[in-house]
Amino acid sequence: MVDIFKEKEKVIDENSHNYGLLDEVSIKLIKKEEREAHTTVLQRLAKQEPQCGFGELGVCCRICYMGPCRIDVFNTGGPQTGVCGATADTIVARNLLRETVGGASSHVEHAQEIAEILRDVAEGKLDNYKITDKEKLIAIAKNLGIVTENKDVRQIALEVSEVSLNDLYKLDKTPSRWIKAYSPKSSYSKWEKLGIVPTNIWQPITNAMHRTMMGNDADPVNLMLADLRMGLVDGYGLTMATELSDVLFGTPHLVHSYANLATIKEEYVNIAVHGHNPALSEKVLEWADKLNDQAKAVGAKGINIIGVCCTGNEVLMRHGIPLAANEMQAELALITGAVDAMVVDFQCIWPILGQVASCYHTKLITTVPYVKIPGATHIEFSPEKADDVAKKIVEMGIEAYQNRNPTRIFIPDHPEEIYAGFSVEAILDVLKKVSPEDPLKPLIDNIVNGNIYGIVAIVGCPNPKTRKILFTERMVKELIKHNILVVVTGCIAHITAQAGFMNPKKIKEFEVGEGLKAVLKALGQQIGLESLPLALHMGSCVDNSRIGVLLKAISEKLNIDVSALPVVGSAPELITEKAVSIGTWVLDLGVPVHVCPPLRVQGGPQVTNILTKDLKNLTGGELYIECSPEKAAEGIVERIRNKRVALGLKA
Ligand code: BF8
Ligand code: SF4
Question: Which residue in 101, 135, 208, 488 is deepest, having the highest Cβ count within 10 Å?
Fold first, then answer.
């Protein structure tokens, strides 16, 4: 059950590297890292293997000091309960809920920071940020039930920020306005029946930590309801963060750019932005522009900003900044020897970056008071100080550029061309060219006639375990053969960008179903491309909310449940608790969710049953665990086929 990645493994080299199917450039950089930094992700992974089977199955508990305890799920005469009497299912459910809390907390705190900036801008306390997309602000206000007539933009922004912050922290028990406004009606009524609609964010989070302490909730079903509620808290965070970021920094529209580490430019000062909060990266971009001449004065051709992980997605979507590296490639970016500064905020910043940066001239700069990394320079960011901080960061990059060691530079060739920026608004703009009055119609018609067999949202992370078998690339290749429209976010967007799925010119290199090919071509030509890309980049991980907005629109237009739509979510290379909480929200919405590596629930038969079977009758969601890319694609297509049959569509 646990040993899932055996199939394609190659021999492990003398430095504990199992390169699997990784490409030559990555292997070259990893070897360089071994020589120059004496650590690599593959080595660190190999040293952990075999990883703890109890942990993988979710039956290890260290919640109290009578433990740690673990359950013998194979019934070989070992313990069937922990010291306190907790069963495998209780332990699994408690662990899962705590994981989901970790992810949801990340997203709601992200949302809160953006909402506070909006409030301060509206109150006139911050003049270094502005309301960029007024139209979107008004649309959000209307969604939230705020009257907009005869009010100026600032007043509307203030009311939106107040509703948002109040929604997060209010004490009364009225339902959250954001959740109500942004959730598909059919899903919402199911949540009401289950009694899982949150009224704020702090209470479910506090309660989850409380109830999972030793000696509290031991009922797996009750715990799973709390888990589903936590998924809604997460969805809240995602949606608020994305919508309000669009107001402040602009709603994404079609952009042309490049992907992979070849976007690092030797003759330029290279500054990498890494993390999640556009409040920081937007300012770094601004100052890179202002200080370009300063970079020229020290002999560089200018400043080149490159994007890493989700911040990379944010600045790509809004400004066309190159998508250089996913989370796992962040250290490889440093290994090129040509990144002069890497500035980070929160989430997905591996601690190893401090150690690796110290082997080069690179300045690693942390900016968030609760995210400090040994070996990094800390310059505290706050929206009030944003300009000073961003200026200082760019200046540090320019200074570091002068300390490069030219003998240590290796930058790969051939950046991959990409088109991105597919917010819901951008997708609708394309569709409006075909059907101005009813933009969803062409999309729905093509789903009905089978040109588009279904939609699969592929989201989440680049796990070294699954990178070695190129899980995402292989799965996408199978899906597009079956006329599946693929939308992507997060680090999966980096992976698909690097693999050529966002380059319309490369469509001919893949085996693509005829229906899908025709639709992408027809729509792409409406906006001057030879085709839309095979993978539509919808943004960062918080931008998964854009997929939620689209699902709501389709389901309400057709007046059918989200769970009936031929749509599946997949996190094929899951790493973080955030991916778990996003997946939980998608299950809440009523959409099947494929994952690999397996969610750590398989040691709890009751919990596994709830997620893989019972949920279908509750929200319509279904957890699907499969760790062969081809089989996963098959299972996903089968689920879509079943939904089509149930709708009476061509199977
Ligand atoms: O939030 S995809 S590794 S960077 S968790 Fe992290 Fe996963 Fe990347 Fe963005 Ni999302
Ligand atoms: Fe063991 Fe129970 Fe304590 Fe967990 S809570 S460590 S199962 S005694």
Answer: 488
